[in-house]
Amino acid sequence: MGAVALLWNFEIGLPLFFCWLFQLTFLELFAPNVKTAVWNILRHYATGAGCAFLAFSLYAIVIRCAYGSFPNFNLVLLTLKMTSLGAFALPVPLLHPWNFLPLLYLTGLLVGVRCVLRRTPSPQDSLILYCAMWGCATFGYYIGRSHNLNLIAINREFIFLLVLIADRFWQAAHTPVAPPVWRLPHQRLFLAILFYFLVMPFAEMPCALQTWAEVVKSRWTEPQDNQPAPVQDLEFIRKHTQPGERILIFSENNGAYYAETQ
């Protein structure tokens, strides 16, 4: 699955692929001896490399049979190259809900470190560590382009991790043996964060009613073009480009635009 994700979306597939390998490495740290652990870790990475090679090879063969030429795999790095030069970058706000994300990811990583030091692995700790690693990897999306929509796009790992840690603290708070006093503020903190994210969307709805009303009104009163957006985009491309001109299209329909303008 991780190898296929490299083809589906390289920016997300690469973190997913390596986070899974790191997760397998973490589990092998609890092997009975060092030799077994090293051998299994090397086997996992060899298997991952083989699966990635197989996925790319099968994809190239299918594209060659369907379209007559092999795909240019260098293009999967095009977006990373452009963003590394500062394209589409937006500054990171100082005080913002994103401040909660690194705090929770750090907590998840510390859970994994504690498991290694205590030699007490558990499926829940393993899942917490995986979500924390994946969250740290995808958090670069928001750091590069600090737009609220980008924060929404990468908060799924945060929600998963938040629920897992809040569940752990909730269970600890209801055990027959009372938890140490120093843990109580942490339990309250993460339960408060979970409560905040669950309640705030509903609390903000009255503030957005006017905006929603304006959007609905504009949809009903303003004349709408019957042509779908891709058709309008194709007409725009044909009108403002010359035959043989090379352009870069950022759209989820870029494949269709490329095929229809050849």
Question: Would you mind describing this structure in some detail?
Answer:
The chain has 262 residues and is an all-alpha fold. The chain is 70% helix and 0% strand. The protein is built from twelve helices and no strands. It has helices at 2-8, 10-28, 34-67, 78-84, 100-118, 123-144, 148-153, 156-173, 184-203, 209-221, 229-240, 254-260. α5 crosses α8 (156-173), α6 packs antiparallel against α8 (156-173) and α8 packs across α9 (184-203). It is flat and about 70 Å long. The protein starts with a helix and ends with a helix. The model has no long low-confidence stretch (mean pLDDT 79).
Compact summary:
This protein has about 260 residues and is mostly helical. It has helices spanning about 1-10, 10-30, 35-65, 80-85, 100-120, 125-145, 150-155, 155-175, 185-205, 210-220, 230-240, 255-260.
Features:
flat; 262 residues; 12 helices
Number of helices: 12
**Percent of sequence in beta strands:** under 5%
Specify the helix fraction band: over 70%
The largest pleated sheet is described as: none
Helix-strand string: HHHHHHHHHHHH
Q: State the separation between the terminal residues, measured CA to CA.
A: 33 Å
Q: What is the structural class?
A: mainly alpha
Number of separate strands: 0
Per the principal axes of the C-alpha atoms, what is the gross shape?
flat
The Cα radius of gyration reads 24 Å
Rounded mean pLDDT is 79
**Low-confidence blocks of residues:** none
